[in-house]
Structures are given as C-alpha cells and as structure tokens.
C-alpha cells in the first residue's frame, strides 16, 4: 500500500501544479488579487504531496519491499541502512523524484518567504515554476514511475551499483540537484519579468539570494562529486572533463556570471537585458545536463543510460522551456528600458570583463562537450574531445580572468582609477613574484609554467586580503578604529573576499596535483618496498574479509619517512555477488594538504598484486578551496541586504479585486 500512496500523491501533486500554473497568471491578467494569491497555498500543498511520495519510496527501500521493481533493481536486504537511503536517488527513477521534490521545495520557499515581492511578480514566478513542475511530474509519471509493482515478489534484490555504495553519494546528488533546480527560480523570475515587461534594480535584489543559494549548492555538489571520483574510481584523478562532469560545470560558470551581472544591475540598473538572458541560459544549461545524463546518449559512470524514449521526453521539455523563454526574450527584451551608464574602467566594467570571460569559457566547454555528440548523430563519425582540447581553450580564458579578479573590488563604481588600484595591489604583486621565484628555485628542472601559476594563485589570494585591508584601513588607522570599520562592513564584503581568496587556494591545489604528482605503478610482493617522494612504502601482504553485502581482499602497507612509521594503508578490491562486479577501494594517507594514494589491482595467486602509488602534493586544497567558496557564498547570503530584499511598497496595492 505504501507504493500506491506514493504514486497517488504524485498524481495529486500534478493536479495541484496544473491549477497553480493557471490561476495565479490568470489572476494577474484579470487583475484579480484572489486568483493571483492562490499560488502560495498551491505551491506549499504541491510540495507536501511530493514529499509524501518521496517518503513513501524511501519507506519501500528501508523495509526492502522487493515487490516494487525499482527497489528490487537497486537494493539488497543486507545492504547497510545508509545505502538503503542513498539507493532512493542512486537510480534514474528515484533521482528524478528527488529532482521533483527539490523543485517543489523551492516553489514552496518562494511562497513562504516571497512576501516582500510585488504581488504580480510573485504570482507570475509561482505560475512559471508550476509549469516546470508539471513537465517533470509528467515525465516521472509517464516514463519513470518509481512505484511500479512486480507480479511475483523476488526473495532478494539485485543490489545498488557498487560504485554508488559510498558516503560521497549520500551527499553529492542532493547538493547537485539543489544547485541545478535552484536555478529554476532565477529562470522563473526572468520569465515573469519578461511577461510583466518590467525589470529594475529591485528585481536584481530579489533574484540574487535565490541564485546565490543555488550556486552554493552546486559548488558543493561538484566538489563532492569530484572528491568521490578521486578516491572511489581508483584512477587517482579529480577531473576528467567527462561530458557529465562538464554538464554540471556549465551552469556553474553561467551562474557565476549571473551573480556578478546581477550586482551591476542592482547597483546601476545596467545590463538588464544581459542579466535576464543569463538567468534563462543558466537554467537551460541545467536542463541540457539533465538531458545528457538521462537520454542514453552518453556512456559514463555518472550517467543513467536509459530508454531513448525518456530522452525524447526530456528533449521536448528542453525545446518548450528553452525555446519558449528565448522567444519571449526576443519579443520583450528590446522593450526594456536601459539603465545607467558607466566608464569602461570602473567596478561595473570589471564585472562586465568577468562576464565576458566566464561566458566565453562556458561556450568552449559547451562546444567541446556537445560537438562530438552532434557529429556522431549527424555523420556517424566518432571523435574524442578530452583534456588537451579543454586545456588549450579553457585555460587561456581562465588566466586573464584570475589576474583581473583582485582589481575589480578595488575599483570605484561608475568611474574607477586603474592606476590607483594597481598601486594598492603592489604588495600583493610583490608577494606573488617572491613566491613564484621561490617555487622556481625549489623545483629546478620542473614544469616551467608551475611557478607562474602558483604566483598567480598567490596574487589572487593576496589581492582578496588587500581589499579587506583597504576597506578597514588596517595599515593606516589604529587597531580599534580598524576593528570598528571591519565590524561595520557588510557580510557580503567578507563573503566576496573569501570566495576570491578560495579561487587562489583551489588553483594552488590544481597546480600541485597536476604538475608535481609522483607516480609508481608496479606489481609488488609481500616484503617489497617502494620509494616515492621521500616516503618508503612496504607491502606486508593481503587480507580477506567479508562485508555486509560484499567480499573484500585488501592489502596492508606500512608508510615510513626518515625511518619513522607514519601510517598504515589498506587499499582493497571488493566483489559484490548480487551484482557480479567489483570495485577498487583506494587508501589515502593525508600529510598536511598532501596525500599518499594507493589503488590495488587484481591480486595474484602468489600473494603479489599490481598497485598504483601516488604522492599528490597539495591536492586537498582543490576541495578546501571549493568549500571556502561555498562558505563565502553563505556569508554573502547572510547579509541583511540580501535577506530582507527590496522594501515592500506601502499603500500601493498591485492588484485590485475583480468587480
């Protein structure tokens, strides 16, 4: 009965979404405040029914109800409880239900916390959000129903894909979907503004918190997925430019541009048309990513290669929403009043520069990802576009953007002084040059570009700190005065500085992992010792053990430096009988921000085994930087100016009851 409750709850949610998609928008057109106000309770009720449906599917997994086909395909009675929960979204049908749940959740948040929005804008936003929900609810019910029953109940399930039985997958998809789906709010705001034909600085103030929240979640989701791939797949890399990885990176790049563009619009009422377009494109790229993952056009460890009919359905959603939004944009955007003007050398100009390079970088990733698929579909020819292409196109665009990052916050609005900003960055530049020179001296004969990249990273970090020093006048005023100035700064100032600082942190991690990783691949026997980067790693032998739903053979290695034992590594090879396949479990030993990484190959009858052993300097800074970016976003999101939004107009009702 639990599955039936979940199915019927989805049907009721669809009915509510249909009503929500019609009544509020009709109320705006008819100037009927009662109809326009129906969006809020309908959005909350829709979320409630989707939550009931998701809870029902979760209950089926926790109780191992193998009469439900989806549970039979992706669960096992002996699987740990944590993975029974994560199995809910570890498959196509369940993950789409999670997508719909998050979509309804954001709609409910707008209904609950959008009280300061104009009534017409709020009604249109909820109406647009409802139509997005309608499309995906129909997709789930018609092509991806997770509640289908089996006529004969199996005694045991087929188990979850072993690669997904990991704590990283408990967090990666929910955070990623919160980012993907969160951008639907920015999309709904953009379409609502185009329908209304009015957009101003207040619109930018309202849309920024939603965009920032989605960006934070997407940043964390990408970082979690990257770290999961790093330690779970056993190949030792953190980014492969896989099409599905790129599918999440594209809306992140576009969303980052949208955040900066919205700042210009809020401050100067400029870039209105461009900001609206970015809001549309960012969610459109999220939909493109959904199509790539679920259409069956890709074969990837990240992808759900499913029935092509599902791909056709998602393609129809893409055409309707992207095509419809762009058509509305082409019609209404030229009618929008342009905002204030500014000099090229100004804070606004720096943000435009930021947008130019971010969107160009986004375009290169988009082309490199989709061109091979389009070529194969049109001609049947297969080509591979990998790291060499992206390194040759994306990196040259990222470097000038990183170099310009410290200048932007130091320029004044409307008209800035580039020479004055450069003077204030003199100390940051000097520190960067010294660090680059020291890196070159310590890595004599190493990669030529590595010291330059390290110096650039330090320049970005020191530049972010310079902005705070200038704002607080730390080096010009006495400490109590500087402290009071710091306490008076908005949290968004600290958030921006921390996010920019984190870019430098991540870049150092990327350079360390990319240029200075040491690698040894060999077959070693018990008693053998391998030296790598000053460490001596001794293989002590293999040990077999039985897990909850798997068998594992693990190696035991002792790690010494200067004769002292500093750790034990136990890389493993797991076999899952229910699925009939195996996975590698890498072993990691952390030393500061660096790691020793060991991946075990297939054991041999004589007790030897093939192993990949890496020393990865500064690799953890990659994900520490991403975490700091998210924390910087949270600081900005907690800024009172974003929490309260624009003031609600007094004594000026937007709608009049119908007569």
Characterise the protein shown here.
There is one protein chain. The chain is α+β, with helices and mostly antiparallel strands. 62% of the residues lie in helices and 11% in strands. The chain contains 21 helices and 10 strands. It has helices at 2-30, 33-36, 39-62, 69-74, 81-86, 92-113, 119-143, 168-196, 201-232, 243-268, 272-294, 308-332, 347-379, 387-404, 418-424, 426-442, 449-472, 479-488, 491-516, 620-637, 640-644, and strands at 518-524, 529-532, 535-546, 551-561, 564-569, 572-576, 581-585, 587-591, 594-603, 609-616. The strands form 2 sheets. Strands 2, 3, 4, 5, 6 and 7 form a 6-stranded antiparallel β-sheet that branches. Strands 1-10-9-8 form a 4-stranded antiparallel β-sheet. A hairpin with a 4-residue loop joins strand 3 and strand 4. Helix 3 runs antiparallel to helix 6, helix 10 (243-268) packs antiparallel against helix 13 (347-379) and helix 17 packs antiparallel against helix 19. The two termini are 48 Å apart. 47% of the residues are buried. Residues 644-654 have low confidence and may be disordered.
| Rg over CA atoms | 27 Å
Structural class determined from secondary elements: alpha+beta
Range of strand content: 5-15%
Overall geometry: globular
Could you tell me the number of beta strands? 10
**Total helical segments:** 21
Overall average residue pLDDT? 90
The CA-CA distance between the termini, in Å, is 48 Å
For the largest beta-sheet, the strand count, sense and barrel status come to: 6 strands, antiparallel
Instruction: Indicate the low-confidence ranges by residue numbers.
Output: 644-654
- Helix content bin: 55-70%
């Amino acid at each position: 009965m639990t599955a039936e409750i979940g199915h019927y709850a989805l049907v009721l949610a669809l009915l509510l979404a249909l009503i929500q998609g019609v009544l509020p928008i009709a109320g705006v057109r008819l100037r009927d405040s009662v109809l326009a106000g129906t969006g809020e309770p309908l959005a909350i009720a829709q979320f409630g029914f989707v939550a009931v449906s998701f809870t029902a599917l979760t209950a089926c997994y926790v109780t191992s109800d193998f009469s439900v086909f989806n549970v039979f395909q992706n669960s096992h009675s002996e699987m740990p409880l944590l993975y029974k929960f994560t199995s809910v979204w570890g498959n196509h049908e369940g993950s789409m239900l999670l997508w719909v749940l998050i979509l309804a959740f954001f709609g409910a948040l707008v209904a609950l916390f959008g009280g300061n929005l104009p009534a017409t804008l709020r009604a249109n936003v909820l109406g647009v959000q409802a139509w997005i929900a309608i499309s995906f609810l129909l997709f789930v019910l018609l092509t991806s129903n997770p509640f289908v029953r089996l006529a004969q109940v199996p005694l045991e399930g087929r188990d979850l894909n072993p690669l997904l039985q990991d704590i990283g997958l408990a967090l990666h998809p929910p955070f990623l979907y919160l980012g993907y789906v969160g951008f639907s709010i920015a999309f709904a705001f953009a379409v609502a503004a185009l329908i209304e034909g009015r957009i101003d600085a207040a619109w930018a103030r309202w849309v920024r918190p939603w965009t920032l929240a989605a960006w934070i979640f997407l940043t964390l989701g990408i970082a979690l997925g990257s770290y999961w791939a790093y330690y779970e797949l056993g190949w030792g890399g953190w980014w492969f430019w896989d099409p599905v990885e790129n599918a999440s990176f594209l809306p992140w790049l576009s969303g980052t541009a949208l955040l900066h563009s919205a700042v210009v619009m809020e401050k100067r009422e400029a870039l209105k048309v461009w900001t609206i377009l970015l809001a549309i494109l960012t969610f459109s790229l999220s939909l493109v990513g959904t199509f790539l993952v679920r259409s069956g056009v890709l074969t990837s460890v990240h992808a759900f290669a499913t029935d092509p009919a599902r791909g056709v359905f998602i393609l129809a959603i893409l055409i309707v929403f992207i095509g419809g939004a762009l058509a509305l944009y082409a019609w209404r955007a030229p009618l929008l009043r342009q905002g204030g003007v500014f000099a090229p050398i100004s804070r606004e100009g720096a943000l435009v520069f930021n947008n130019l390079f971010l969107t160009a970088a986004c375009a290169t990733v988009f082309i490199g990802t989709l061109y091979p698929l389009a070529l194969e579909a049109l001609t049947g020819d297969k080509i591979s576009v990998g790291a060499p292409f992206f390194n040759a196109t994306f990196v040259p665009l990222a470097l000038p953007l990183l170099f310009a990052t410290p200048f932007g916050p130091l320029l004044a609005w409307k008209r800035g002084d580039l020479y004055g900003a450069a003077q204030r960055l003199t100390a940051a530049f000097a520190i960067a040059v010294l660090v680059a020179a020291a890196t070159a001296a310590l890595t004599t004969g190493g990669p030529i570009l590595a010291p330059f990249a390290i110096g650039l990273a330090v320049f970005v970090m020191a530049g972010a700190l310079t902005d705070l020093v200038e704002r607080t006048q730390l080096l010009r005023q006495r400490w109590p005065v500087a402290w009071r100035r710091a306490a008076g700064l908005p949290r968004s100032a600290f958030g921006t500085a921390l996010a920019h600082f984190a870019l430098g942190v991540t870049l150092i991690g990327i350079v360390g992992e990319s240029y200075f990783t040491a690698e040894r691949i060999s077959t070693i026997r018990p008693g053998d010792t391998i030296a790598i980067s000053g460490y001596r790693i001794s293989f002590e032998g293999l040990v077999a053990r039985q897990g909850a739903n798997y068998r594992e053979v693990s190696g035991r290695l002792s790690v010494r430096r200067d004769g002292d034992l500093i750790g034990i590594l136990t890389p493993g090879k797991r076999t899952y009988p229910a699925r009939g396949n195996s996975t590698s479990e890498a072993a990691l030993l952390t030393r500061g921000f660096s790691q020793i990484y060991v991946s075990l190959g297939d054991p041999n009858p004589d007790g030897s085994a093939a192993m990949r052993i890496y020393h990865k300097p500064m690799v953890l800074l990659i994900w520490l930087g991403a975490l700091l970016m998210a924390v910087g976003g949270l600081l900005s999101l907690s800024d009172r100016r974003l929490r309260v939004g624009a003031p609600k107009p007094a004594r000026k009702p937007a709608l009049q009851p119908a007569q």
